Write a sequence for this structure.
C-alpha cells in the first residue's frame, strides 16, 4: 500500500469510527477477547496465586479491556497438574505454574524452574532473557503448542524446617522430608526419603509425624503456613531452589492469532508481573523473617560447609543424569552450565562480593 492510499484508507476508517463512537480510539472498536488462565495454585494463594491474578490484571489494564483474562484456581477448571495439557489443547489459553512440574513431558523443562546449586533469581533472568534460555524454552514448549514466559520469581528459598539439627550429611539418613523435584532426588541419595505433598497437606503431615521435615518456600509463605508451630529449626540457605522461576505458558496458536499490539502487551505484562512478584517476595520475606525470629522464637540454623559440599556433589550427579536423558536436556544443560560458570566468576566479585563487604559493617 502506498502512503497516499494508506492515508486515505486510514482517514475513512477514522471517520467511520468517529460516527460510531465519537472520539474513541479506533482500537476500542475491536472485538473484546476473553481468555481463561488455569493455575497450579489454590485461588489467591499468597505470592503465587496472587501473582497469577496480578498478571491477568496487568494484561486487562494495559490492553484497555481488549484482552480480559479470567483466573481459575487449582481444580476449578482442571486439576492443577493437568494445566499444561489443558492449555496445550486450548481448553484454556494460559496456565500459571512452575516448569519442574512438567518433567514428565520434558526432562529439560526442569532447568527453567529451579536447579539445586544452579542460578539465583538475578542469574535466571539473565540466562532466560539474554543468555539463550528463552529460545531453548520456546523450542521445548512449541512441541506442545505452547509459548513459555517467565512470570515471577520467589528468590532464594529456605533450606527447610526440621525437628532435629542437621550437623552432617549423615543426619539426612532415614529422614522423611517433603521436598519435590531435583532437590528431592539429591536428599534421597543422602539417605532421606523425599515425599511430594501439595502445599495444603504439609502442616498436618508434619504435625502428625507422617513426615519429619519439610521445605516450602521462604519466610513469607512459611510464616503463613505456621510451620514454626510444629518444627523447631529453620535451616538456610535453600540450596535446592536458589531462585525459582514461576512461569506462564500460553497456547501458541491463540498467542499468534492476537493482533500485534496485544501480543506485545502480553509479553510486557509477563515482565511486569515477574518483577512485581520478585519485589513482593523480597519485601515480605524481610518482614516475615523478623516475625518468625522475634515473635515466634524460631531457631535459625545454617547448613555447615560439609553438608553443603556433600549436597553440591550429589546435585552434580543428579543434574548430569538429567542431561544424559535426551538430546534436548543435554542442549539445555550445556547452555545452563556455561551460564553458571560465568555467573560464579562474576557473582563472586559482584553480588556476593558486595554482600560480604556490607556485612562487615551491617550484620542485621
Ligand atoms: Ca520449595
Amino acid at each position: 500500500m502506498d502512503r497516499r492510499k494508506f492515508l486515505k484508507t486510514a482517514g475513512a476508517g477514522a471517520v467511520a469510527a468517529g460516527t460510531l463512537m465519537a472520539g474513541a480510539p479506533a482500537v476500542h472498536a475491536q472485538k473484546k477477547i476473553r481468555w481463561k488462565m488455569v493455575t497450579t495454585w489454590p485461588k489467591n494463594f499468597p505470592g503465587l496465586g496472587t501473582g497469577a491474578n496480578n498478571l491477568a490484571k496487568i494484561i486487562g489494564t494495559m490492553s484497555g479491556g481488549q484482552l480480559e483474562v479470567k483466573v481459575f484456581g487449582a481444580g476449578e477448571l482442571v486439576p492443577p497438574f493437568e494445566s499444561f495439557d489443558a492449555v496445550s489443547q486450548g481448553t484454556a489459553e494460559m496456565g500459571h505454574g512452575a516448569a519442574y512440574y512438567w518433567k514428565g513431558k520434558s526432562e529439560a523443562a526442569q532447568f527453567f524452574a529451579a536447579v539445586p546449586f544452579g542460578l539465583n533469581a538475578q542469574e535466571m533472568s539473565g540466562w532466560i532473557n539474554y543468555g539463550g534460555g528463552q529460545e531453548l524454552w520456546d523450542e521445548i514448549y512449541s512441541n506442545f503448542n505452547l509459548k513459555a514466559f517467565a512470570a515471577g520469581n520467589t528468590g532464594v528459598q529456605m533450606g527447610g524446617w526440621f525437628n532435629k539439627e542437621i550437623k552432617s550429611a549423615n543426619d539426612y539418613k532415614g529422614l522423611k522430608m517433603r521436598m519435590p523435584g531435583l532437590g528431592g532426588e539429591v536428599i534421597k541419595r543422602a539417605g532421606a526419603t523425599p515425599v511430594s505433598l501439595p502445599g495444603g497437606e504439609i502442616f498436618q503431615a508434619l504435625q502428625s509425624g507422617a513426615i519429619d521435615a519439610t521445605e516450602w518456600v521462604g519466610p513469607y509463605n512459611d510464616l503463613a503456613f505456621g510451620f514454626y508451630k510444629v518444627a523447631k529449626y529453620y535451616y538456610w540457605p535453600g540450596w535446592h531452589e536458589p531462585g525459582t522461576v514461576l512461569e506462564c505458558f500460553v497456547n501458541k496458536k491463540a498467542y499468534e492469532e492476537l493482533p500485534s499490539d496485544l501480543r506485545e502487551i502480553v509479553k510486557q505484562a509477563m515482565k511486569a508481573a515477574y518483577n512485581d512478584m520478585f519485589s513482593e517476595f523480597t519485601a515480605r520475606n524481610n518482614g516475615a523473617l523478623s516475625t518468625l525470629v522475634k515473635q515466634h522464637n524460631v531457631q535459625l540454623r545454617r547448613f555447615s560447609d560439609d553438608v553443603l559440599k556433600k549436597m553440591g556433589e550429589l546435585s552434580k550427579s543428579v543434574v548430569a543424569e538429567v542431561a544424559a536423558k535426551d538430546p534436548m536436556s543435554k542442549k539445555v544443560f550445556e547452555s545452563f552450565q556455561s551460564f553458571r560458570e560465568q555467573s560464579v566468576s562474576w557473582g563472586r566479585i559482584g553480588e556476593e562480593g558486595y554482600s560480604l563487604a556490607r556485612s562487615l559493617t551491617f550484620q542485621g
